[in-house]
């Protein structure tokens, strides 16, 4: 594989990863050898340093793509507006499904909504309205509402939501989700 293609793959992995990635993990993912991966990561560090906006952070043998300090003020402003701005209709739909059906996996949520929910989930997590918990038994992440969400609504418990019993275990949804497999096709656009 060419160095350019390998470097592009490393950059893509670092961009999409929410956590730092080690050289060993990166080498395994791109089927490359450690010295070659380390050389390409060093090149990426230099490239990002020369153009600004983003930077590739290195701590021991772990790497993470992050915004540069030059952008900190504008990024803080953006994040603040993302957290305090109004929820979009798709965000409200997603939050409602999580409230009535949670804890729920991303795959189950996407089956119900019919679209990819990654960005919406990220925004709801940032706002503190939902939380992610790993389900070790199933090996997946489950999403549920937070106490902040319940406090915001002014209710004492989730079962106080309108028609909670009826919507929490809807027979049609049960049938739909019973046929759920991990390879279910989901559209990649968001509503």
Account of the protein in words:
The protein is α+β, with helices and mostly antiparallel strands and 191 residues long. The chain folds into 2 domains: 3-70, Orthogonal Bundle (Arc Repressor Mutant, subunit A); 86-178, Winged helix-like DNA-binding domain superfamily/Winged helix DNA-binding domain (Arc Repressor Mutant, subunit A), CATH 1.10.10.10. Helices cover 54% and strands 15% of the residues. The protein has helices at 3-16, 23-30, 34-51, 72-84, 89-101, 106-113, 118-127, 147-153, 164-168, 171-178, and strands at 21-22, 54-59, 62-67, 104-105, 130-135, 140-145. The chain has a 3-stranded antiparallel sheet with strand order 1-3-2. A hairpin with a 4-residue loop joins strand 5 and strand 6. The longest helix has 18 residues, at 34-51. The model is unreliable at 181-191 (pLDDT under 50).
Question: What is the secondary structure topology, with strand pairs?
Answer:
Elements: H1 3-16, E1 21-22, H2 23-30, H3 34-51, E2 54-59, E3 62-67, H4 72-84, H5 89-101, E4 104-105, H6 106-113, H7 118-127, E5 130-135, E6 140-145, H8 147-153, H9 164-168, H10 171-178
Spans with pLDDT under 50 lasting ≥5 residues? 181-191
Structural domain tally: 2
How much helix is in the residues? 40-55%
Radius of gyration, in Å, reads 20 Å
The whole-number mean of residue pLDDT values reads 83
Major pleated sheet: 3 strands, antiparallel
Oligomeric nature of the chains? single chain
Fourth-tier CATH superfamily name of the largest domain: Winged helix-like DNA-binding domain superfamily/Winged helix DNA-binding domain
- CATH fold call of the largest domain: Arc Repressor Mutant, subunit A
Strand content: 5-15%
* Span of the ends, CA to CA: 37 Å
Q: How are the strands ordered across the major sheet?
A: 1-3-2
The CATH architecture assignment of the largest domain turns out to be: Orthogonal Bundle
User: What count of helical segments does DSSP give?
Assistant: 10
- The rough form would be described as elongated
Question: What order do the helices and strands follow?
Answer: HEHHEEHHEHHEEHHH
Structural class call reads: alpha+beta
The CATH class of the largest domain turns out to be Mainly Alpha
Report the strand count: 6
